[in-house]
Design brief:
- The protein is of the alpha/beta class and about 350 residues long.
- The protein has 2 domains: about 5-70 and about 100-170 and about 265-350, 3-Layer(bba) Sandwich (FAD/NAD(P)-binding domain); about 175-265, Alpha-Beta Plaits.
- It has 10 helices and 18 strands.
- A hairpin with a 6-residue loop joins strand 14 (about 200-205) and strand 15.
- Helix 1 (about 15-25) packs parallel to helix 4 (about 100-110), helix 2 crosses helix 9 and helix 9 (about 295-315) packs antiparallel against helix 10.
- The longest helix has about 30 residues, at about 320-350.
- The protein starts with a strand and ends in a 9-residue tail after the last helix.
- InterPro entries: FAD-bd, FAD/NAD-bd_sf, FAD_aromatic-hydroxylase.
- GO terms for molecular function: FAD binding.
């Protein structure tokens, strides 16, 4: 009997986790990733609540604990660098914090022998013709799949192809910003420093000899800056931080020299349904709660585990499985999205956007 085959777009966290569970449920799994190789960047990610149970199911919880950053608290300072208050580690971290590069490397190793990975490629067209989905790729020949799952982030290519333009699905939370690393000139040792406000600075390091991770955020009316060039994004940051003291001038200089600079706006994804026909979405692609929620990685893992479990329980009948997956997961997602909106408002000094049902 031929195994049902599934294509997953995205090889970060949700994609490989889902690939692992589906392979063990009897699926033939392919993962396509537009990056040329496994990504080796990203902040430390934290896990809370049910995500720890998923890590146990994956069999990697003990190994990940060996990579725990064991971050301490964060000192809040004013624009002159004067200490305002000390926050405990729990304010920004979860029950377990690990560098994202370690998580993605472990997930890839866990699945590499059983799952086909297509790096340096992306989906260009999806045709759901009832019995299956015809998938066209940028580089590989077109192929047929029984199911297609988008695990490709907040600006999901699969979502755009299957659901159409984002429209109101992508909700801006009033913040944009950049992240990069630089020399740890402050000697931070498993601690953070934060200057909140309309333009905010968050700095942390996992050790005195480790790089300083920098996040510069500022209030914006839309995510339009995401589409600009790096030069234009850097100028927007200089404009936002003009006149600020403390570490701002030094960090703006370091920003231009960083080779791991990235820019993103804080957004949420809201959809009435996370599936259409044989195509479904997991993680940020379907229900991003925004980085301010602190739940992105946990939500990705729980979403992958829930979808795989429902597909297995439904005997591969995707319509039943997709519906059950949404019903089971949506309360958890709504709670995380509410937290993301509230945190975005507290960082920027504004009011939280209204709740969305």
């Amino acid at each position: 009997m031929t195994k049902p085959n599934v294509l997953i777009s995205g090889a970060s966290v949700a994609g490989p986790a889902l690939a692992y569970f589906l392979h063990h449920a009897g699926y033939d799994v392919t993962v396509v990733e537009r990056a040329p190789a496994l990504r080796d960047t990203g902040y430390a990610v934290d896990f809370r609540g049910p995500a720890l149970d998923v890590l146990k199911e994956l069999g990697i919880l003990t190994e990940l604990r060996e990579h725990d950053t064991r971050m301490g608290g964060t000192t809040i300072v004013d624009e002159a660098g004067n200490e305002v208050v000390q926050l405990p580690a729990e304010a920004f971290g979860g029950e377990l914090d690990v560098p994202k590069r370690d998580l993605t490397r472990i997930l890839h190793r866990l699945t590499a022998d059983d799952v086909e990975y297509l790096f340096d490629d992306s989906i260009t067209a999806l045709t759901d013709h009832g019995p299956g989905v015809t998938v066209e790729f940028e580089h590989h020949p077109a192929r047929e799949f029984d199911l297609v799952i988008g695990a490709d982030g907040v600006h999901s290519n699969v979502r755009r192809l299957a659901f159409g333009p984002d429209g109101d699905a992508l909700r801006h939370l009033g913040m944009s910003g950049a992240g990069f690393s630089t020399a740890n000139h402050l000697g931070l040792d498993r601690r953070g420093l934060m200057m909140p406000g309309k333009a905010s600075i968050l700095l942390f390091s996992t050790g005195p000899t480790e790089p300083l991770t920098v996040s510069l955020s500022f209030a914006t009316a839309s995510p339009a800056l995401d589409r600009l060039t790096r030069t234009e994004q850097e100028q927007a940051l200089r404009d936002a931080f003009a006149g600020y003291g403390w570490e701002a001038p030094r960090l703006l200089t370091a920003m231009s020299e960083a080779d791991d600079f990235y820019f993103a706006s804080s957004c949420q994804v809201h959809l009435d349904h996370w599936h259409r026909g044989r195509v479904a979405l997991i993680g940020d692609a379907g229900y991003c709660a925004a980085p301010t929620s602190g739940m992105g990685t946990s939500q990705a893992l729980v979403g992958a585990w829930t979808l795989a479990r429902e597909l297995s329980a439904a005997g591969g009948r995707h319509e039943i499985a997709y519906t059950a997956y949404e019903e089971r997961l949506r309360p958890y997602v709504l709670e995380n999205q509410a937290a993301g909106r509230q945190a975005a408002a507290s960082f920027s000094g504004g009011e939280a956007p209204p709740a969305i049902s």
